[in-house]
Predict the 3D structure of the following.
Amino acid sequence: MQDDARYRDLTNRSVDAVAAGLRILDSPFERIEVPFEGHKVVGNLRRPRGTDRPPLVLLIPGTGSVKEEFP
């Protein structure tokens, strides 16, 4: 990373693009922020329709990877 401003801009654009894609999916999503050691972990919570308490899967790949990289 040689250009912090460019990196931040591209990260924000990536987050916005994912949010735009999530809005067209069948199951709704909610952006959540969880406090952690003086910072916050931000994520998208998706809940399937038709169930009050679905199982939970928590993936934290960061912005440099994607969930498909997990085995």
